[in-house]
Amino acid sequence: MSSSGADLFVVCKSCGREVSPYVTECPYCGTRIRKRAPKLDREGRPKGGRLRGRRPSLGRLRPGEIPGIRVDSRPWATIALVVGSLGGMLAWQAGAFTLFDVALLGPLGDEWWRALTALFVYDNAGYAFATLAAVAIFGWLLERRHGHLLVILLFGLGGAGGMVVAKAIEDFPFALGANGAALALLAAWALPQLLATRRGHDTEADLIGAGVFAVVLLFMPLAASEPNAIAGYTGLAVGILAGLALERLSPAR
Question: Is residue 80 classed exposed, middle or buried when 0-12, 13-18 and 19+ CB atoms within 10 A define those classes?
Answer without folding.
Answer: middle
